[in-house]
Amino acid sequence: MSEDLYSTNVEVRYQATPQTQVLIERRWPRGCTGAGNAFLVLLGPSMGKEKPGESRAPGGDNRPYRDPMTMGRSVIDFMGLGGRGHRWNRLCKALLGEDRYTPALTALVNLDWSHETDEREVSPKHLVSGFHDHIWKLLIQLRPRIICALTRRVWDTVAPEVRQFEMADFPKCPIEPSEPRLRLPVAPMFIRIPGCDFVTMLIKPHNHPSRPYLGVRHIAVLGQVSTWFQSQPVSDK
Questions:
Q1: Which tens digit of pLDDT belongs to each residue from 129-141?
Q2: Most exposed residue of 76, 118, 189, 204, measured as fewest CB within 10 angstroms of its CB?
Q3: At what angle do helices 84-96 and 216-230 cross, to 10 degrees?
Q4: Positive or negative, the Cα torsion across 32, 35, 38, 42?
């Protein structure tokens, strides 16, 4: 398998990605989908409301691995979310740089596999065990450059767990808008995922993309931070 599939450069990773979907010998844990070589991982708390006719997933232990993992130029699509899909796509474009990267290099993963629309209903124990037992291993496989924690609760769950991998000497992000409401709710973290020879950014948006409070100007700031990050030296060595 070509190392370019996991390149630190988004365009190189995109060009190495097959034009049509290709199965790889892995399966997604329930509640996760997208690109098997994701440059961008969107990290949520749980799957949200079940679809009509779908059995409600309980979450917690015994998480199944069902859908095969794929790589390709069109492996994820947010337009099925209706009007919310535009915000999801705008967020991905801002973090990745171009629209064409979104369907090819994005993965959506959830700490827990329950069908919950309110993350407050998800057990803290399930969030932590989901990260330890499934999501951290998945991140090591995907080797993303950007992890976007979609809610504060996700951030508060994940940030302490990855603190040991933080690159303390990585430059401080200089993007700080003059308007307080546009500033990031928490400073990005820069970590080195085991097995990777590059730095990955953990960032939190101002709000979840399914909520209207994540505006165009908020997303523009996230894009500025991502552009700055991707211009930095890729390795901590």
A1: 999 999 999 999 9
A2: 118
A3: 20
A4: negative
Q: Rounded to two decimals, what is the model's pTM?
A: 0.95
Query: Over the stretch 168-214, which tens digit does the pLDDT of each residue have?
Result: 899 999 999 999 999 999 999 999 999 999 999 999 999 999 888 89
CA gyration radius, the chain: 17
Pick from 145, 203, 200: which is nearest to 167 by CA? 200
What single DSSP character describes residue 231? T
One-letter amino acid for residue 99 of the chain: D
Report the candidate in 92, 91, 88, 90 with the shortest Cα–Cα distance to residue 78. 88
Element (H, E) at 29: strand 22-29
For the chain, which domains are there? 3-230 (3.40.470.10)
